[in-house]
Amino acid sequence: MSGSVWRFAGFDYSPQSGLRKDGAQIHLGPQARQLLELLLESKGAVVSKAEIAARLWPDRPPSDDSIDRCAYLLRKPLREAGHGDLIATAYGRGLSLRAAIELLDPGGGDSGRADKGLDGRTLDLWQTVYELASRRTRDGYERAQSAIAAVAELHSSSPAIWSLSADIAAGRAIRGHLKPAEAAAIIERDAGRALALAPGFTAAVAVLGWARATLAGRPEDGLALLDRAIAQDPGYGKARVYRGWALARLDRLPEAIDDTEAGLRASPHDQGLLMQRAWLEFCTGNIDRSMELAHRGLFLRPDGGWLRGVVAVASSLSGDHVTAEKSARHGLELVPEDPSLRAVLSAALARAGRAAEAADALEAAGGDGRSAVPGLFAAAALLAMGQGDEALRTLARARDEGCPWFAFAVHDPRLYPLRDDIRRLA
After folding, report:
1. In the chain, which residues fall in CATH 1.25.40?
2. What is the reported pTM?
3. 232 and 205 in contact (C-beta within 8 Å)?
4. What is the pLDDT of residues 331-342, one digit of tens each?
5. Cα–Cα distance between 260 and 274 in angstroms, integer?
6. CATH 1.10.3470 fits 291-426, yes or no
């Protein structure tokens, strides 16, 4: 776009002079400018999320929240300049500019719209990965991992693709859809490939730090990597989510809360950060505050299945069994097949005195054997059913297998009767 001047809806834009209207300068941040350039180059066509990701975040795979926030930072100054919403959202596809676009001075610029490092087929496959992973089902995550493998074959020199594969493996392990040892192997391999291509690549450093802190049971080593990732990119929300797990494993919850708050200041709609903030408050024992934060998060992200999980565990512990069951079931509608949420439902039913239903719900949580209930949630359900010894044995297995949720076991208020035993396990 160098040397070009674009006109749309009464605005003029060039890379040299920025955005102007009637001669007045309109400030845009660097990512908003990059997004505007991409939309102008498309000449009104829809620009896919994958294409936006490749241009704006070439060093790491962004979340949909990051793309939405960037779109907001472009919409806002355009609206304030006296126009309606010029940025159109094509649901499930991407963004476009609602305006006639005129190229006034094409002199010398390259107006091709795609990142030259990724061809069209690769971008299509990357978009498929986003769509599959966004469903957050077991099969969706498995297919996303397969799609990433196909992308990597076509574009094996992209550290972002290898890092995204590692992140998907982390997500599968967190939800119980992948054994911790298998997830650890994938993350070490693919984050390692990313770092071999781009030493210090932030997203790869972050997911590798999480894996070592949780799956490998090496929280100090993992925290050192996560500190490095955040120093490189303080606005990378996922690094702060991952760092919260490492800090919880090291019994440093106040720092984890501060870290999550810092992440939310940069990305207030990030679902992972919203969920973790409410969960960490629950782990401090402040049940009412946890519920308040979860409801606040749901106002921003009504699609947050695990935010409803936090409402369920907090309500159950407070004795509001009707809300607990309703929230757990609603969460399962949003995140089908989630073993942790099924275990949350089991614990809620047990606390409500419905032991037989609780046992059935916990048995169903394992499904067909392709998923496993993370030990933290299975233990909470067992303890609610009066099976304290079995709950403790479940936690010991979780520790030995590298279950990532073991990081929170000593803090979880549902497991307070076992706290001394859990400390000895940890």
Report:
1. 291-426
2. 0.72
3. yes
4. 999 888 889 999
5. 8
6. no
